[in-house]
UniProtKB/TrEMBL annotation:
L-homoserine binds at residue 189. NADP(+) binds at residues 10-15. One of its GO terms (biological process) is threonine biosynthetic process. The active site is at residue 204. Residues 10-127 form the Aspartate/homoserine dehydrogenase NAD-binding domain. It comes from Calidifontibacillus erzurumensis. This is Homoserine dehydrogenase. Transmembrane segments: none annotated.
Length: 327
């Protein structure tokens, strides 16, 4: 029986999640594809760190050994930073591989170029995992845009900041203590700047803008305010008034262009985002026909993000059944 041959670039939390889903769901995947899915190679920074993970798994720190694998069909990228991720995916597409990424930073910078390149080479680029973790927002928008004109998106796009604000409200923790708890539980990095200053959510906003409006706002004109100035006293005062502070990203299409704002916002109980707690994400989409729809779910973590990647794998072959996979 033929197989779909997959390589994974990056073997941290998300990369290992992809590996485990493929390893433990072969029966389901085989029924979907009519063939098994094989992980034929994994790119890592430090081979010794992963030497005991699976003795049968080909692990290398040399990308040339990955891209030179025979009959390679799909390259899944779960790294960080713009480079070398962008260059690696370009090479994969030029080899006529499907490309799937969870790298929001890279894709906010180079998404349009990769999508155009894939079109030219007859492959696909999946990027559901760049926004919203396990929430299928990209696929939803792509389907919604068939008839609806989306004029606004707003949401909670970062689970770490939402967790911190939730703990500050529920337990009266200071920002510092809530952040320390998030780090202890693995929700925040040792350097939490990308989360608490809003950079992570910012890049997700730019990807959503590209999907919905076909362009991004000028990055210099985007309002980006983090949560470091939110105090427990403010949160408790708002709680008495039956409103809550949420870190909300908003994109609005206007006659003058795209207005993009990311900042702490006070929301009432009637707002769907009021009830989003912990590490959950939620995104409200406003279409001129459908009105407002809201999607919520786990915004981060090993299996929610890896699940989005595997769904992209399914969509890749649903979109391009004419692409012949390896024997």
């Amino acid at each position: 029986m033929s197989a779909i041959h997959v390589a994974i670039l990056g073997f941290g939390t998300v990369g290992k999640g992809v590996y485990e889903i493929i390893r433990t769901n072969q029966e389901r995947l085989t029924s979907l594809f009519g063939k098994e899915v094989k992980i034929v190679g994994v790119l890592v920074k430090n081979i010794e760190k992963h030497a005991d993970y699976d003795k049968k798994l080909f692990i290398t720190d040399n990308f040339e050994e990955i891209i030179s694998l025979p009959n390679l069909d799909v390259v899944i990228e779960a790294m960080v930073g713009v480079e070398p991720s962008y260059t690696y995916l370009k090479q994969a597409i030029e080899k006529r591989c499907h490309a799937i990424t969870a790298n929001k930073f890279m894709f906010a910078h180079h998404g349009p170029e990769l999508l155009e390149l894939a079109k030219n080479f007859g492959t696909t680029v999946g990027y559901e995992a760049t926004v919203g973790g396990g929430i299928p927002i990209i696929q939803t928008l792509n389907k919604l845009l068939n008839i609806n004109q989306v004029f606004k998106i707003e949401g909670i796009l970062n689970g770490t900041t939402n967790f911190i604000l939730t703990k500050m409200r529920e337990e009266g923790l200071s920002f510092t203590d809530a952040l320390a708890l998030a780090q202890q539980l693995g929700y925040a990095e040792a350097d939490p700047t990308n989360d608490v200053e809003g950079f992570d959510a910012f890049y997700k906003m730019m990807i959503l803008s590209q999907v919905c409006f076909g362009e991004q706002p000028d990055w210099k004109n985007v309002t980006r305010v983090g949560i470091t100035e939110v105090t427990p006293e403010k949160i408790q005062q708002y709680e008495k008034e039956n409103v809550r502070i949420k870190h909300i990203a908003s994109l609005t299409k206007t006659d003058e262009g795209i207005e993009a704002v990311l900042k702490p916002v006070v929301v009432p109980p009637t707002d769907p985002l009021y009830h989003i707690e912990g590490v959950e994400n939620a995104i409200s989409v406003y279409g001129h026909i459908v009105g407002r729809i809201c999607l919520s779910g786990p915004g981060a973590g090993m299996f929610p993000t890896a699940s989005a990647i595997i769904e992209d794998l399914v969509h890749a072959y649903a979109k391009s059944p004419a692409i012949v996979t390896s024997a």
